[in-house]
Amino acid sequence: MPQKDVKIAPSILSADFSILGEEVAAIDKAGADYIHIDVMDGHFVPNLTFGAPVVKAIRKATQKTFDVHLMIAPVDPLIGDFVDAGADIITAHVEAGPHLHRTLQAIKGHGVKAGVSLNPHTPIESIQHVMDMVDLILIMTVNPGFGGQSFIPLTDKIAKARAMIEQSDRAIDLQVDGGVNPQTAKECIAAGADVLVAGTSVFKDGPEAYAVNIKALRG
Ligand code: DX5
Ligand code: ZN
Fold first, then answer.
1. Residue 145: nearest ligand to its CA?
2. Is 157 exposed, middle or buried (0-12, 13-18, 19+ CB in 10 A)?
């Protein structure tokens, strides 16, 4: 069932890194709900972005929720650094290590919200025994590592995740990340997603277009 209030989480991976603070302030002003921060380690994924010091630097630019998507392995040793830098939600990948339960305990232990992300091939059932610990489920609709890729239509997986959330009777965000544009956003919302991550489709055409771009994703 489509969700009523869809949140938009622009991915700053597509921002102009030379003026990152200004870009974050601009998407805040344009109506972003969360600021999605893609951390890549060149090991878990074949690309490298930024670490906790950059997150701390941009924390000054906005009060909005910092939604930190960790594409790193191992995860646990760096959780504290990202919390100290100002993360509100920390999302780790199911595939990043053998001890997801321990990672979620560590995130919760730091007093922030815990998210869990699944690569396209990973069955949604892999998280059924940690549903009581998660505050956010992130369904990857591209292979993580790069912006600007094409959407992989995993709407049945999104719908299954929505059903699991309804059954859990807990407030869990259902986030979709990768190739989200105004067309694919509709499919995600119809399948039950309520937080849409978008890099390319938010940051295209420069700051004057950000508000229109964000609005176009809300369906
Ligand atoms: C991919 C990242 C995404 C990415 C989305 O690994 O997790 O957040 O920035 O970019 P677009 O919206 O361009 O697919
Ligand atoms: Zn992401």
1. 1
2. buried
Q: Can you list the pairs that 43-46 forms with residues at least 24 positions away whose Cβ atoms lie under 8 Å?
A: 43/72, 43/73, 44/71, 44/72, 44/73, 44/93, 44/95, 44/96, 45/71, 45/144, 45/145, 46/145
The pLDDT value given to residue 219: 79
CA atoms within 13 A on the CB side of 85: 22
- Is 81 a residue of the active site? no
Q: How many CB atoms lie within 10 A of CB 212?
A: 11
The model's pLDDT over 55-64, given as tens digits with 9 standing for 90+, comes to 999 999 999 9
Cβ neighbours of 45 (radius 10 Å): 21
**pTM of model > 0.85:** yes
Asked if 197 contacts 11 with a C-beta cutoff of 8 angstroms, the reply is yes
Contact indicator for 32, 2 with CB cutoff of 8 Å:
no
Task: Note the pLDDT tens digit of each residue in 149-191.
Answer: 999 999 999 999 999 999 999 999 999 999 999 999 999 999 9
C-alpha atoms less than 13 angstroms from C-alpha of 59 in its C-beta half-sphere? 15
Residue count of the chain:
219
Residue of 146, 180, 183, 217 best suited for mutating to test ligand 1, as the one with most atoms within 8 Å of CB: 146
| Spans of the chain below 50 pLDDT | none
Reply yes or no on whether 38 is catalytic: yes
Annotation: CATH topology of 3-217: TIM Barrel (3.20.20)
Q: Which atom of ligand 1 is nearest to the CA of 69?
A: 7
